[in-house]
Amino acid sequence: MVKFLASNENNLKRLREILKVLSKYEFGYLIEKIKLKHNIPFIGKSYQYDSLEELDESTPERLRLVLQELGPTFIKLGQTLSTRPDLVGRRIATEFTKLQDDNPPVSFDSIKQVIEHELKSPINEIFETFDVEPLGSASIGQVHRAMLKTGEEVAVKVRKPGVENVIKNDLAIMEFLAKRVDSYVPQLKIYNVPGIVDEFKRSIFKEIDYENEALNLKRFRNNFKDDATVHVPAVYSKYSSLKVITMELVVGTKISEVTEADGFDLKLIAERGAISYFKQVVENGFFHADPHPSNIYILKRNVVCYIDFGMMGIIDEQFKTELAELMIYLINNDVSGMISQLTYMGMIDENVDTRSLRYDLTDMMFKYYGTELNEVHGGMNELINIMRKYHIFMPRELVLLARGIGMVEETGQKLDPTFNAVQVGKPVIKKVVKKKFSPLTFADYLKKNVIEMEHILKNIPLSLTKTLYKLEEGEISIKIEHEGLEKITNKISVALILSALLIGSSMIMTTDNGVYLIKFPFLGFLGFGVSAVLAVILVISIIKDRGLSK
């Protein structure tokens, strides 16, 4: 049997279960290609496809069904891949957005044990009331409504017992299968399956770390502390830990369920949602990476409230500005500017066919935008597909951002059919670009880099001294390579000999010694004669070389 899993009977059993599900949904050929068919004898020829090339339009759906049936870890993998159309393509990414993470809740007794172990106190000493039935249950955790002893109503999110071990075991099997796919299936090598699993591994361990989510929530709340149009739930750190997070209970309506009949201003909500998202990206550099309608609530007075901060995107100052500049080119329908900006950002190198890329981007602009950019969602997806086609490197944050903007625009248009995300976000983007060229930004740059500049200035004399010392000791050698240098050197040599002959012959002509020819020294005549011949040869050689070079 497979040595990798032979030492763990549970993993071996789980592997068999995974292969059965793959076979059930007609991926038996893949099992045979990765050389596991003969090791897993229960798999017969129950599949209808004989090669990967025959996979049809149903492939994305069948992949989704495989992940759905395999449970929590694989569902999370699919949800992560739904944010990465650059890796798996738009069709598969879109299909994976349908993956549901609703799971039956675990017993209240199990949840109670986790809370009391993590918070080191009996549950009735922490909470005045605690609802036995959860508000919701996902694969990793479930949420219960409660009230603190101090009177605040809270939502308590608790990681389900044993989840971490299940994830670790499933990840071990994923890594094993990914390596075999990469080794035995050349057609799938372009997807870098081991790299996908590795990225997912980092992502899911962040998501099950509720301390990390609490920090994300606090940072996000601080970014919008002065914005009355956005509300972010408070975190109660005293009652939070690695497996428990206690936060303010949000009482509102899902953004997908708000109606004018209930007193909501749909146009205003769409505008506020878009402005808040563009602020997250280009002002704060810290954005919600999964802003689907279930994670956005609307409170009284049309206030936008984000929840679930397990998946966040982070952008540094430089990338924020570069991204804002790219968006300006996109808004202005400037293809040349986009290509220049992508090159400046290090995404396009000399291996990219920029001429063909320019044609594709121009077609994209004409197809989606015409004279006005008013459908970011379609355009962003198409832009990612084009970049994927040309194997252009895309940072994870850029892909998450494209997906996020697409979700915001789609939600906004459902609220208000006339909604234009770009027109709403344009002032925010331009503000960031304008800030880049302000004197205060330059002064701030000097302030941040003053120590480094001081180090450089201090080291200049020492570096110069070391260089001059090495030069003096002959420790520095300079190697120059030049095509045709030998020919040039020969011509210079002839020119120097010619010069020497002319000078020498001229000096001999002024003397009174030696043999004379027509009242002038014979050696002088001879020198001038040889000089004339060399001069003619040199001129002919130069003219010949120029003719060849044209």
Automatic annotation (TrEMBL):
Q: Which domain of life is it from?
A: Archaea
The record's Pfam families line, in alphabetical order, gives: ABC1 (PF03109)
Q: Does the keyword Transmembrane apply?
A: yes
PANTHER family on file: CHAPERONE-ACTIVITY OF BC1 COMPLEX CABC1 -RELATED, PROTEIN ACTIVITY OF BC1 COMPLEX KINASE 7, CHLOROPLASTIC
InterPro entries (alphabetical): ABC1_dom, Kinase-like_dom_sf, Prot_kinase_dom, UbiB_kinase
What are the transmembrane regions?
492-510, 522-543
In the record, the note on similarity to other proteins reads: Belongs to the protein kinase superfamily. ADCK protein kinase family.
Q: Name the SUPFAM superfamilies for this protein.
A: Protein kinase-like (PK-like)
Q: Which GO terms describe its molecular function?
A: ATP binding; protein kinase activity
Q: Does the keyword Oxidoreductase apply?
A: no
What are the UniProt keywords, alphabetically? Membrane, Transmembrane, Transmembrane helix
Q: Which PROSITE patterns match?
A: PROTEIN_KINASE_DOM
Q: What is this protein called?
A: ABC-1 domain-containing protein
| Domain Protein kinase: residue ranges | 129-441
